[in-house]
Write a structure and sequence with these properties.
Layout (H helix, E strand, L loop, with lengths): L4 E4 L5 E4 L8 H10 L4 E4 L5 E4 L4 H21 L2 E5 L4 E2 L5 E2 L3 E5 H4 L4 H5 L8 E5 L6 H13 L4 E6 L4 E5 L6 E4 L3 E3 L8 E3 L1 H4 L4
Parallel strand pairs: 9-10
Antiparallel strand pairs: 1-2, 2-4, 3-4, 5-8, 6-7, 8-9, 10-11, 11-12, 13-14
């Protein structure tokens, strides 16, 4: 019997290389994730699995701040829907990713069937945020951010708290690195959304 061989990289994430021995269907991958709800699991465009442990307290608290700030703005704006880090998105290139925070225009969601809405959404978010935790490789996150942009995201922020940096990703533009910004604006993609970063740089407890 041939078994998938796991490898562990320096970021403490578990990478399972499945293909070509195992080729999970979308439904099988979804059910696999439901059976392992305590883990955050992504799938690369090649079909490999990336299994991430739960985050620590500081990262979890920062994630909650991001979700609240984005959610409050989205409720007032009304044009889109927010998703937290437990939501999965099936990208056009075949990968399934779970950004720490995401926003999608309602006009793109209304065309989905009820069954599609219950599973990993078959689209790339319009806006995504990735927040680096101590177990994350910055290089891996940068690759993931570029993947979002290549698959249709209109704006992406990679936040690195320990360096007080924000990498800004936009289609057809060079990546911009902001050093210790006090805030960052989502205009024009997220009109009027401003994230106050001093609340993110501090753990808050």
């Amino acid at each position: 019997m041939i078994k998938a061989q796991p490898t562990i990289d320096s970021s403490s994430q578990l990478h399972l290389r499945l293909w070509p021995v195992i080729d999970l269907t979308d439904d099988q991958f979804f059910e696999f994730c439901q059976l392992n709800r305590d883990l955050r699991i992504e799938q690369t465009s090649k079909g490999d699995l990336i299994i991430m442990p739960p985050t620590g307290g500081e990262t979890s608290h920062r994630n909650s701040k991001l979700a609240v700030a984005l959610g409050i703005w989205a409720e007032q704006d009304g044009k889109g829907v927010t998703f937290d880090s437990s939501g999965g998105f099936k990208l056009p290139n075949g990968a399934t990713r779970s950004p720490d925070a995401a926003w999608v225009l309602r006009s793109r969601l209304v065309i989905l069937t009820p069954q599609e809405k219950r599973k990993f959404l078959p689209l790339c978010p319009d806006f995504i945020i990735e927040l680096r935790s101590p177990s994350d490789s910055v290089i891996d996150l940068q690759d993931k951010m570029q993947e979002y942009i290549d698959n249709g995201a209109q704006l992406g922020w990679l936040i690195v708290p320990e360096r007080k940096q924000v990498y800004v990703y936009r289609p057809h533009q060079p990546v911009e690195c902001l050093e210790n910004p006090e805030s960052i604006s989502g205009d024009p993609v997220l009109s009027g959304f401003v994230l106050e970063l001093q609340k993110i740089w501090q753990s808050g407890f």
